[in-house]
Amino acid sequence: MGLFDRISRVVKANLNDMVSNAEDPEKMLEQSILEMQEDLVQLRQGVAQAIAAQKRTEQQYNQAQNEANKWQRNAQLALQKGDENLARQALERKKSFAETANTLKTNLDGQVGQIDTLKRSLIGLESKISEAKTKKDMLKARISAAKAQEQLQSTVGKIGTSSAMAAFERMEEKVLLQEARAQSAQELAGADLESQFAVLEAGSDVDDELAALKAQMSLGPATSSNQPSLPQASESSSAKSNQVVDSELEQLRKQLDQL
């Protein structure tokens, strides 16, 4: 393949690509309808011209036929008058017009067939134009729907990468983080409050038990008013008893400190 052939092919390919990209489906549909309507106008003009030509040929045929018939009558009249030479001339004229009429009849038959063909073509083109108009409306609706779908997909595709969407997602993450912090603080506050109440409850039990123990040790065993009182112990016995109690209290304090 020569260099110029390759260049020519590249140029044609680029031109075809430019033409394809420049074609607007809606405009091309409208243009196609306009071109078909122009063809319809030309075809109607052609049919009208063919019909006019047929009428002229028909008139010429009828005129030639009438002339042939007239000279036929003239020839008969000349023979009746005994003028054979005049009759021969009349028959020659009749023959000339008859030949002309035959030629016109052939042309007329051809024109009739041609006009029938043109009329069928005209009807077919009108039907095609009507069908094309219906299809044009349907195709334009499909084109509009396809453009809308394409624009929607393009918009949806851009949402994920747009700065507005990214900012929205960042704000959403911040809100979620703030909610998580608030929930954590609430849980910690609740746990601390529960621990404080637990300490209070535990301390109350110990305090109650300590108070009961103090009351028991200070009051001693309960005595009834009806019973006779026991003789008081000697001072030495009371001193010994106080030492025992002090010793026991000291041991109790040590045990409490070791806890």
Name its key features.
single chain; mainly alpha; 5 helices; rod-shaped; Membrane protein; coiled coil; PspA_VIPP1
What is the topological layout?
Layout: H1 3-22, H2 25-80, H3 84-159, H4 163-219, H5 235-258
Radius of gyration: 64 Å
End-to-end distance: 106 Å
Share of residues in helices:
over 70%
State the low-pLDDT regions, or none. Answer: 222-234
What does this entry look like structurally?
It is a single chain. This protein has 259 residues and is mostly helical. It has a domain at 23-159. The chain is 90% helix and 0% strand. The chain is built from five helices and no strands. Belongs to the PspA/Vipp/IM30 family. Keywords: Coiled coil. Residues 217-259 are annotated as: Disordered. Residues 47-81, 115-188 form a coiled coil. Residues 221-245 have a biased composition (Polar residues).
Brief summary of the model shown:
InterPro entries: PspA_VIPP1. By secondary structure, the protein is mainly alpha-helical.
